Task: structure prediction
Amino acid sequence: MRHFLQKFSPARILLAIFLFFVLFSGKAAVGASSSASILYDKARVAYHSLLKSKKRMQRRDQWVAVIDKFDSVYSKFSSSGEAYKAVFTIGDLYEQLYSISRRDKDLDEALEYYRLIVSEFKPGRLTDDALYRQGEIYFNRGKYTAALDSYQEILQILPGGDVAPKAKVRVAKIRPLVPVAFPSSKTPATIRKISTRRNEKINLSIGNELILDKIDYTVGSDSVRVVTHTSSPVVFSQGRLSNPSRVYINFNDTRLANDVNRNIKVGSRFLKSLRISQFDESNSRLVFDLNKVGSLKVGVWQEGSQLTVELSDKGAGTATAQKVVKTQKKVKAKAARVKPVAKKIIKRVSVKKERAPAKRIPVRRASRERALKAVNKKVPLIVVDAGHGGKDLGARGERGLKEKDVNLDIALRLKDILQSRYKYKVILTRSDDTFIPLPGRGKIANDNEADVFVSVHANAAQRHAAHGIETYYLGAGHSEDAKKTAARENGELVKSVKDGQVQEILASLISTTKINDSSRLASSIQNELYQSMRKKYSGIKDLGVKEGPFFVLHDTDMPSVLVEVGFVTNKKEEKRLKQSSYLHTLASSIAKGIVEFVQENDPMI
Result:
């Protein structure tokens, strides 16, 4: 026994256990590494196969399929070297896709993955390449400050890398283009103290610069609520991205505090994680990496300097909704029990009604009228604007289709659907082929105190292959496509107003609340349009939600959007825009988007 104990002493036992775990974990690590390599190699084969086929490269779904393969590597083996390479390749794929699609969203995706290389992985041989690509995108967009930051970061973290010489050339070229900010005696630096629930922080900002200071989140059984804290109310926009599924919020003219948590692992059944980044020199972006998409509902609202985003399950419903259903059932059951008794009471009253005092009758009638008026106030009023009209033909297709006719047809259908199906009140800015000046259209909505204003248009482009559906809300319109579309829709009015005056109008008339609500209305309509149309028709292209300086939207007091339902300059879409069934589906989809927005905003509307 003593010999046995000497042979297997505690020290030897511990050593054996240690060796066992080292051996086991080593095998597991080798297994994981092997699996990541196999998955990455398969994705790389698919990548090269795509680039060999010019026919496949013209199809967006082929690019997305390859991106999904690389994203699978990142999702399953996020800390591996293969994940590092996969993330860079996804950025490269989106950048190449942009050269074909010319969609700004694809470049945004490329930027996001290049930033992911820098934020989530240790510096490696691809980090400086990602930063350089990021800088090039900013440079081509005219965002010189952001581009300069990207190039300078290369020189800071990898000064001896192969990309450093190119970065130095870029820095020398861009630095003269970036204005130097000198402190002004008129607007001295101010200290803004921001109170948080955890502690008290002090942030320095120049002038009226907004600071995003903190992000909180709460995980519930059927929802996740995220609250962002900024130094004052912020103008924001939102959108959804796929492959992988994400929701994002853009904070306009907002800088991130130095100590804000930029990567938050949530791990709920709705949400994997939150990522916040300085999207460019003036805007921040919060990204929600989603777990569940199918029945997910996204709600956004602002209260002072707090912006709340709630992800919830449409199927599960809220506790309030469940209580309402239970209450309705109880009321119905009670009504069923009371009904026989009520009949008896009514019968007695009818026998004795001659003896009832006459003065009570008008009192009951007046009460009923007031109740009806109260109900009527809750009925949403929608103003539908059929773009162009009369002498203003709008765009024209090769086969003679006039935009003004398409717009009016859809507007009339939209009015009928909103009135008959949803019992909404609807006013048309024009119900026939009449010319109405742009400034007068918004006035119609304001004078009638409308809840929503929707302007219906059809698009046009010099490139006849251009096609798709997009929805605009009022904004500066940074992309060239947005500026061209706005210039065409604004027509003669834009020629009579100088650019400086345009900016003054936008600055003075855009309110934070209106922009935020208009952004959500645009997202709701665009989502319904794309999802509904693609189920019935092939080749429907989602051009997304965009900002644009449209005069028809600038003087409305309520949430306002402009919908471009398709391109009359595209042969396929021109043909479809002549079909009654196609126009009806478009009108029905726009109506659904309006209704979804109204219901989410109730009881505000």
